């Protein structure tokens, strides 16, 4: 059974939730792979001042969008919280939003990906409200959500961050002992595209198993990087990821 798990994400908190779940059954290591740069914060700050009047809801698909809201609130000096619904993907995004807007009207956090969030928004949003939805994006957002929503709803996208590869990643990777068997866990297509050449070279000759946090990342690994994905988590949570990997290893013995 592979006993090493490389989590291709920056650790968050002490202890990190993913590392805590895997500890005991595996030896987990987290490495930051991307650096995020916020942008258009002044534009977002201005939008937040009138967001309840101009928009029917807001959509956030990542914790980075929530960080942008936090920065925009500081920039604008606004103390009142928006009242409109915030549709989010997953519990991690919901938690990040609550950190900056404790009383936010959060909906859809049970959804694990855009494919699940899109139909939920269509069912949940007031059909008589024809105002656009404020859609906060990064530089690598996919068209999954717009393709589901735009036949019926109007989106106003605003890019609030972009990502680049972490310059520290190759250095951190070389600190790992490549002996034994390893699970490599990918959390985002953009990260996968950046790190795979380094991993392929550094882990040459090492038995690897590949896991993805969700279907979007899994499809990218298969279609673009031509990797065999052994496990895709049913939900983007530490528990679901751990359960999927444990189950795969148990039936592979």
From TrEMBL:
UniProt cross-references to CDD domains, sorted A to Z: HemD (cd06578)
An individual GO BP term: protoporphyrinogen IX biosynthetic process
InterPro entries: 4pyrrol_syn_uPrphyn_synt_sf, 4pyrrol_synth_uPrphyn_synth, UROS/Hem4
GO cellular component terms attached to this protein's record: cytosol
Pfam families in UniProt: HEM4
All residue ranges annotated as the Tetrapyrrole biosynthesis uroporphyrinogen III synthase domain in the record: 26-241
Example of a GO MF term: uroporphyrinogen-III synthase activity
Domain of life: Eukaryota
The species this protein was found in: Cylindrobasidium torrendii FP15055 ss-10
PANTHER family cross-referenced by the UniProt entry: UROPORPHYRINOGEN III SYNTHASE, UROPORPHYRINOGEN-III SYNTHASE
Name used for this protein in its record: Tetrapyrrole biosynthesis, uroporphyrinogen III synthase
């Amino acid at each position: 059974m592979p006993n090493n798990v490389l989590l291709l994400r920056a650790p968050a908190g002490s202890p990190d939730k993913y590392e805590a779940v895997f500890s005991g059954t595996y030896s987990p290591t987290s490495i930051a792979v991307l650096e995020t740069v916020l942008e258009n914060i002044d534009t977002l700050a201005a939008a937040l001042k009138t967001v309840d009047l101009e928009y029917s809801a807001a959509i956030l698909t990542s914790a980075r969008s929530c960080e942008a809201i936090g920065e925009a609130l500081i920039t604008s000096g606004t103390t009142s919280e928006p009242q409109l619904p915030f549709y989010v993907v997953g519990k991690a995004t919901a938690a990040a939003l609550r950190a900056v807007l404790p009383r936010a009207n959060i909906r859809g956090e049970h959804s694990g990906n855009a494919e699940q969030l899109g139909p939920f928004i269509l069912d949940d949003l007031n059909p008589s409200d024809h105002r656009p939805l404020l859609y906060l994006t990064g530089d690598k957002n996919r068209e999954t959500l717009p393709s589901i929503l735009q036949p019926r709803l109007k989106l106003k996208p605003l890019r609030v961050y972009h990502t680049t590869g972490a310059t520290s990643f190759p250095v951190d990777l070389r600190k790992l002992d490549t002996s034994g068997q390893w699970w490599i866990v990918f959390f985002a297509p953009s990260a996968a595209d950046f790190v795979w050449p380094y991993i392929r070279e550094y882990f040459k000759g090492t038995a690897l198993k590949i896991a993805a946090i969700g279907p979007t990342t899994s499809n990218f690994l298969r279609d673009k990087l031509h990797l065999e994905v052994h496990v895709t988590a049913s939900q983007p949570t530490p528990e679901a990821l751990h359960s999927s990997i444990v189950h795969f290893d148990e039936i592979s013995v």
